[in-house]
Every structure is written in structure tokens, then in C-alpha cells.
Amino acid sequence: MLGISLAGLKLRVPLILPSGILGLSPAFFQGIQSDLGAITTKSIGVKPRKGNPTPTVIPLPYGLLNAMGLPNPGIDRYIEVIEEAKRRLEIPLIVSVFGGDEDEYLEVASKAEEAGADAVEANLSCPHERLVSIFSEDPLLARKVVSTLSGSLKIPLFVKLSPNIGDIGRIASVCEDAGADGITAINTLRAMKIDLELKRPILSARYGGLSGPAIHPLAVRCIYEIYEAVSIPIIGMGGVTGWEDAVELILAGASAVGIGTAISTQGLEIFRLVAEGIKGYMESHGFKGVEEMVGVAHEG
Ligand code: RRO
Asked: What are phi and psi of 77, to 5 degrees?
């Protein structure tokens, strides 16, 4: 009843671990897979990056503000992690990739595909790194990256978009046109916190990305707009803390839902609770499959 087909990937539940949430270890991925439909890795680039100096994460009453700064070991060292993850996982592995231009995106994505990734997610939307966010903001750049990747990859290509732009539906439509198989939305919201004693931004990078309950209504709006603009599937995420939030994203147009920040407050248990809640809602509202529920808020 909860199983879905997502751009050709088979998910036993419509729930996904979003990029960047829980480290990079295949043994860890294996341990958490039972309640998940698919796992997304941290965004990987061409070269190793240390990321930003601390503090990189600030807990707030209504979410988390992060500026990790794309820390990752680089694709050449990550290949063996993908290979081992594939040996250990029964569920699809989506490898998130970023680059400074379309050639870098392609190099990382091609190596990930060769290593056994089930899908690629092109991260066009890190909120505080100009290096990456410009691709979500500029339709021409987005088109260039997506068409380069889609022209070469055989596995499904998802494109992760930023909410920090005027018309997310338009960028989504450009990505669909350029060959994307699905849209992931939303990344975190560009934000800032200032220390009253230091009188300076707390994050070393000054700007960060806000996630958690505060951004959920914004995610609903973005997914609703993307659903109106494209016919490829949407992986919806943004401030999901319970099954009601997940159902809301599905009714807005998401085929699958990512849960990230809520893991820090509720633990991994949240995936099972949300899956049970979605099932209960489907039973009480007469939906036989998740697909029947997707985008229902647009009808009439
Ligand atoms: O690494 C990060 O700081 C980061 C990334 Br790549 C992203 O896409 N979104 C985010 O909130 N942080």
C-alpha cells in the first residue's frame, strides 16, 4: 500500500533520507534502512573539502541553521563508499553531487553512476555557497547543468532546487525541459543569526540554511507550485515533523517525502511513525495507494 515507483526507482515506503543529514558511512546506512524508501548521500564534489570552521550548526527553537560548507571527501575517495553502500543496502542509493560548472557535475555524477548509484541528485541549491546556489537562481545555468547530466547518465536524475528564488515553478520547468527525471524540493532557506554580545553573525560563514518546522508552510507552497509547473515526480521535504506534514506535502504534489531535521529531535523512529500515520490516513480517506494521493489538493 505504501510502495511507490519514483522515476523508475522502487520504494517500499515513500520516505527518503535527504542529503547531508546523517554522515557518509555505509554501515550506518545499512542500520537505518528498514524504515526507509531510499537514502541520499551528502553532496559530493570533485575534490575533498573540509567545510566551514565551527560553529556550523545552530539549534533554534523552530529549526536548525547550518552552514556546513559542503564538507566531503571528493568523489575519487567516495567511490568505495558507494560500492560498499550498494553491497549493504536493499533500498535505492541516491548520490547527491555538486560542482563549480557542468563539467564538474558530470565528472562526479558519472563516477557515482559507474560505482553503482541508483540515481543522482544534482544539488543546485546550497543556500550559503554561491558556488552552488547560482545554478538554482539562473535558468540558463540550471539548463546547462541538467542537460549535460541528462544527456550522459543512464540512471534517473533528480534536481534539488532552492526556495531562495522568485519563481521555483519556472526553474523546475526548465529542469524538466532539460531532461530531469524528478525534482527535489526544498533545500534550506538562506538565513542568519546574530550574537548579541559579539554583535556579529554567529556562523563562521555568516549566512546559513534554515531547516525544520519554520520552513514547512514554505515547502508546501513550493511543492504546490512545482506540481503545477511540471509532470515529473517531486521528492518533497522541508520541516516534516510528523505524518500530517508528510501527507500535506503529498497532497501538494510530492510523490515521496524527505525527513531530515526532525531526526535530531525525534530520532530515526520518526520514519516508522510517519509511515504508520500515512497508512492510517490512507485507510481512513479511502486511498488504495500513495500515487492516488499525490497532488489531490490541486483538484476541483
Ligand atoms: O553543506 C552545506 O552547508 C549545505 C548544503 Br551542500 C546544502 O545543500 N544545504 C544546506 O543547508 N547546507
From this structure: -80, -20
